Amino acid sequence: MLKNKFKNHTGLRLVILLLISGLIPLLLTGCTEKELINDPTTGSILATENFQSLNDGLYSAATNYYDSNGYAQQLSILIKNGLITRVNLKEIDKNQAERLTTAGSDVTWENLAVANLGTLYLRLYNELILSQNPDEIDAVSGATQTSERYVKLSKAILDQAAKGDHEPIKIDTLDTYSITSPPDRDGYQGLMEASFNGSTLIALNYDEIITEDGKSKHKSTDYPYNTEFNALFDTIIETAINNQSLESPFPAGETTPEKAKYGECLRLLKEARSPF
Fold first, then answer.
1. pLDDT confidence of 2, banded at 50, 70, 90?
2. CA distance 175 to 9
3. What is the pTM of this model?
4. What is the 3-state secondary structure (H, E, C) of 38-106?
């Protein structure tokens, strides 16, 4: 009987060691590219029910435009035996440098629900590999934009894998940019918010505000200036959306403060909204 107990304890210790050996790499590798498992005993991924039939190989996808934080996302997924076995996300700035390299894996920011950037990536990796389903991935609070782009890229890649198409692809995203111009001599700054669905400008708001007291030209009640400003701002917004153009409708060197600030906001928006 003592012998049987010894065997039982030995078997239990073996299971614990196997579990630890499976978990330690996940904790130590941070957000590096990593082939993961969800069955530490057999070293394989447990198949989920009703998952998409996938062709083996390496697939990749990237976003068409840089986001409002200045990053484009690029995702690669390795399929083996019809299952997702490796995931690697890169967020690339306009100097073609990776966020992980420039910011570091330990960087964090206000309202981020996980410890740091490295933990964010690892959580996204684990959820996709363990579930084998992008729809099962929960957005991480404080990193909603990265989470949503990761999910969308994952879905696009799995569609490619279902067809066996290994050609890298680009995807469209929903993006909103907030732009502020330098203040003029009266303290007014141009404030622009632009939303895009892929390459289509779907919404645009523009106003000029004194930041210190919140005074707004668009909401001004000072007649006749309020009528002039409202007419001007409404016209330039309508023109931009109808023409789907981020070019200023005013001549170069325009000296009217309102028109000059609007042109500067458009210039800054084009810089932020550059293609990847």
1. very low
2. 56
3. 0.79
4. CECCCCECCCCCCCCCCCCEEEEEEECECCCCCCEEEEEEEEECCEEEEEEEEEECCCCCEHHHHHCCC
Of 207, 264, 270, 263, the residue nearest 234 (C-alpha): 207
Nearest to 190 by CA among 96, 92, 268, 117: 268
CB 150 within 8 A of CB 127: no
Antiparallel, parallel or unpaired: β 200-210 and 215-216: antiparallel
State residue 31's pLDDT score.
41
Predicted confidence band at 32 (pLDDT cuts at 50, 70, 90)?
Answer: very low
The mean of the pLDDT values for the chain is 85
As beta bridge partners, residue 39 has 44
> What digits encode the pLDDT tens for the residues 213-255?
889 998 877 777 778 888 999 999 999 999 999 999 988 777 7
Helices (H), the chain: 2-28, 99-103, 117-131, 144-163, 225-243, 257-272
Peptide bond connecting 224 to the previous residue in cis, omega within 30 degrees of 0: yes
Pairwise pLDDT comparison (223 vs 191), residue with the higher score:
191
171: left (phi over 0), alpha (psi -120 to 50) or beta: beta
Residue 53 carries which side chain, given as an amino acid letter? S
3-state SS assignment for residue 19 = helix
Q: Which of 270, 257, 268 is nearest to 217 (CA)?
A: 257
CB-based contact 90:98 (threshold 8 Å): yes
Q: Strand pairing of 83-92 and 72-80?
A: antiparallel
Which of 52, 254, 243, 69 is closest to 149 using CA atoms? 69
